[in-house]
Structure formats: structure tokens, C-alpha cells
Amino acid sequence: MNNPMTWKYIFQLKAAINWIESLALLFADRWIRELLGEKPLTNPEYLQLFVVLVFVIGIGYWWVSQDISRNREIVKLGIYAQCSVFVVLAYQTLVGNVHPLYLIPGVIDLTFAILFGLFLYSYARTKPTFE
Length: 131
What we know:
The chain is elongated and about 50 Å long. It has five helices and no strands. It is 81% helix and 0% strand.
């Protein structure tokens, strides 16, 4: 995948997903937990911190989409963040602390982490194509 426009749209899509997820969690977490039969959070400030970080990382993906020949460090940070979200959600699902539906955003993040890894790999192989 060496088409810069394709990568631009992939990064924009992930930015939008981050923003939508963060707003959904901010405004609907309690409702989602009730729907799934989960306990309410005892420390909502951790959810708020997570929501802000998800939103800010979305800004980083948008920046990458505006100039994919730069900001590779943001892409690397995003890969680490997305893999971390997957690992935490997979673990918490495995030990029974969260409903298995919470793993869906983790799988989405893992998918994008793999895509972004492919982006970095293809960029390293074909630098002139992206510049």
C-alpha cells in the first residue's frame, strides 16, 4: 500500500474513530454499563483521563494525515497506545472484570496498530514515494 491518499484517509478515519469513541465514553459510559449489567465506575476521573488521552491521540492521527511524510514518531506512539489498549481490554475480559463487548474497541485498535505498522514498513521501503 504505497498510495499516500489511502494512508491519509486511514489516519483520518482513525482520528474520527478516536473522537467518536471518546465522546461516546464521556457521555454514555454509565448507560453502556447499565445496559451490559456492569457496575458503575468508582473512580470516574480515570475514565475522564482516558477519554482525554484518546481524544488527543486522535488529534495526533489527524496531524499525521495532513503530512504523512512527517510525524512518524506520532505513528509509533499510536501503535504502542493501541496495542496497550488491546492488551488491557483483553486481560480485563479474560479475568472477568469487563463485559466481552468491551474487547471490540481493543480489536479495532489492534487492527489499526497493525495497519500503522504496515505504514511505517512501507514508508521505510519507499521513502521517495511519500515525500
